[in-house]
Design brief:
about 30% helix; 6 strands; 2 domains; alpha/beta; about 15% strand; about 210 residues
């Protein structure tokens, strides 16, 4: 069992939680975790880069001059990649970099990422993160009270516009609802800051997708 302390926004202990490792798969599956992260970055690639090959540029296909007897090096047509205005030798073509991964594997990778953060004491549970209006200074003070000084992934049960706007100008901080949680976002931040309500949703696996 993993013991977690629940803090309030002032950094004071208000409650505690016990988490069974089996809820998140019981062990960290590192090969699966790497596969999920590679897939995440591959799916973000646009893949629209393209250049013209020798068959796509304008110009005659006639050999510029005869092979022998001129004293010059042998050449082909004007569209060759060796000449100015010719095509690119190994031209880039638009391609799709997307990778597929079964739903169960995505869920296991996400659970492994959460378990890895729990085992390394990088999960901070706060009782609530409600803001009456967007205010970056108030959010930064919460991070300071909770002693979060490095990159952080902030999670709430549902999308909260005031929370998102309060955190969007803070460097290395991302805000996600629990339903959009994925292994790559978890692993790309040092700390996880999650509300008590969102963590209970995570434990019950209700309304949690497998992104």
């Amino acid at each position: 069992m993993i013991d977690l302390t629940v803090y309030n926004r002032d950094g004071q202990e208000v409650d505690s939680l016990k988490v069974d490792e089996s809820v998140f798969g019981g062990l960290v599956r590192y090969p699966l975790l790497k596969q999920a992260i590679v897939r995440y970055h591959a799916n973000r690639r646009v893949g629209t880069a393209a250049t013209k090959g020798r068959s796509m540029v304008a110009g005659s296909s006639r050999k510029l001059f005869r092979q022998k007897g001129t004293g010059n090096a042998r050449v082909g047509n004007i569209r060759t990649g060796k000449r100015v205005g010719g095509g690119v030798t190994f031209a880039k073509v638009a391609r799709d970099f997307r990778k597929r991964m079964p739903k169960k594997q995505r869920r296991l990778a996400r659970d492994s990422a959460i378990l890895a953060k729990l085992l390394s004491n990088n999960v901070v549970v706060v009782d609530e993160l409600n803001f009456e209006r967007p205010h970056t200074k108030d959010f930064v003070s919460v991070l300071s009270n909770l002693k979060i000084e490095r990159s952080c992934l902030v999670m709430s049960r549902d999308y909260d516009d005031n929370l998102y706007k309060s955190a969007k100008n803070v460097p290395k901080v991302s805000v996600l609802p629990v339903a959009e949680l994925n292994a790559a976002d978890i692993c790309s931040h040092r700390k996880m800051l999650i509300t008590h309500e969102a963590f209970l949703t995570l434990l019950s696996k209700d309304e949690v997708s497998e992104n």
